[in-house]
Amino acid sequence: MDTEYRARKEAFVSDLSGGNIMEVGNVLLVPLTAILLWTTLRTRCSFLLRYCFVSVLVEFVFTVGTPLGALTVCYPFVPALNIGLVLCSAFLLLCVTPSIDGSHTSTQSSKQGAGRQQHYLFISHHRGALMLLVCLSILAVDFQVFPRSLAKVENWGISVMDLFAGSFVFSSGFISHKSSRNAAKRSFYLTLCGLLRLAAMNLLNYQQHTSEYGVHWNLFFTIPALTAMVNIVDCITAAVRLPDEAVAVATVVASEICLRSRGLQENLLSLDRGTGFISLNREGLFSTVGYAAIYLIGRGVGSHTFMLLSSQNRSNIVLSGLATQAFLWAGCFALASTEAVGFGWQIPVSRRLANISYVFWVAAVNSVWLFLYYFIDWVHTTAGQGSGNRHMRSDDNPVTKSVRSDIISAFNEAGLAVYLIANLITGGVNLAVNTLDMSGSSSMALLVSYAIVLTAVALDLRSSERKLRV
């Protein structure tokens, strides 16, 4: 890459301040409201249940095209977009009779699911929507059509892209009880990916935002590092058996105290870098502590949720449990970041430091997300089966298929593989095309083509059962 062009690219994503919490929240709601409308439409139009070109095209427009529009040309109209999607869904739910009767499928699907690991739709939709937003954003951010308020901030503030790394970690913690035996293999793959990424960026003179993680560090190194840190914490607290959430809060409070003593925070945010590995990568190394706390919170929320899913028969109990988690972490975030009810710490969010407000913000957003995705399942379960006693699982009974987004589920199941492919395509586009000077129509044409390719790859990986999980 040309040195002058590289400097322009780095300046384009540097010194940004983000947006406000309502703007970010509205964008994050778009995948959810799009899934709500698509799954509602699918329960009312039986021809959309067939896996054919028309059904895939319609689903792509709703579940991929709508979030892509929200991240680009439709950004100014996102609140109206969400309201429209919800109103259309409400009309279909209240005024159109479902075309699927699931009263006879519950027992059969339970027998089919016995003896094998169950995958719940709300988790699949949560993880898949997150992966979709990440994959769309990592390329779109290099174009003028992507609002700068959604790109990663420099030091203080919030944005959509600031949420992604923490959400990956939270999501990994949430399902960690299912994948603990594969942790070592996953860490090895991620470390290898990090080394290959580092080598490729240096070889190609690719643009690098060093204030994000440091000179050599990246997210692929952070996840194995925090996994090792969590294992150490587990060994230390094994005898006491403290709740994961308590350990996480203690960890992040201690981290915040360290930040505010002996000038550590000022040193981490300083433009001056030394020559040693620690100094060159100080943001990435220190923020691992905050990400470890996020992982522990995710694991704690996951433990409570799966306990309710396995031991309770009524889904409204799970809904109440998820709502409680959402209120708890939203309250912690309000306490840390504002002066709530006359007191509070008023600590601004910093993804660069992964400070206490960032940790609680990530926990709050993902807890609310999980609650809302489960609420969609609950609405469809109640409307489609006449009761709220069953949890939606990703099996093959007609009711479950009708309220499942195949594309979003594919992005979840393809996991790390589709993320790596998205990174490779992003790198290729940035090396081959001048994204900064491209017109709006050309930018959108390229981004839509990119979204089509990624969707096709995710669906192919899902059908062939080749997957790598993050």
From TrEMBL:
Enzyme type, top EC level: transferase
GO process annotations (BP): GPI anchor biosynthetic process; protein localization to plasma membrane
EC number: 2.3.-.-
Membrane topology note: Multi-pass membrane protein
CC per GO annotation: endoplasmic reticulum membrane
Pathway: Glycolipid biosynthesis; glycosylphosphatidylinositol-anchor biosynthesis
Residue ranges of the TM segments: 20-41, 48-71, 77-100, 120-141, 156-175, 187-204, 216-233, 317-336, 356-376, 414-433, 439-459
Organism domain of life: Eukaryota
UniProt keyword annotations, A-Z: Acyltransferase, Endoplasmic reticulum, GPI-anchor biosynthesis, Membrane, Transferase, Transmembrane, Transmembrane helix
GO molecular function: glucosaminyl-phosphatidylinositol O-acyltransferase activity
Major location (coarse): endoplasmic reticulum
Subcellular location: Endoplasmic reticulum membrane
Pfam families: GWT1
PANTHER family from the UniProt entry: PHOSPHATIDYLINOSITOL-GLYCAN BIOSYNTHESIS CLASS W PROTEIN
Family: Belongs to the PIGW family.
Main function: A acetyltransferase, which acetylates the inositol ring of phosphatidylinositol during biosynthesis of GPI-anchor. Probable acetyltransferase, which acetylates the inositol ring of phosphatidylinositol during biosynthesis of GPI-anchor.
Name recorded for this polypeptide: GPI-anchored wall transfer protein
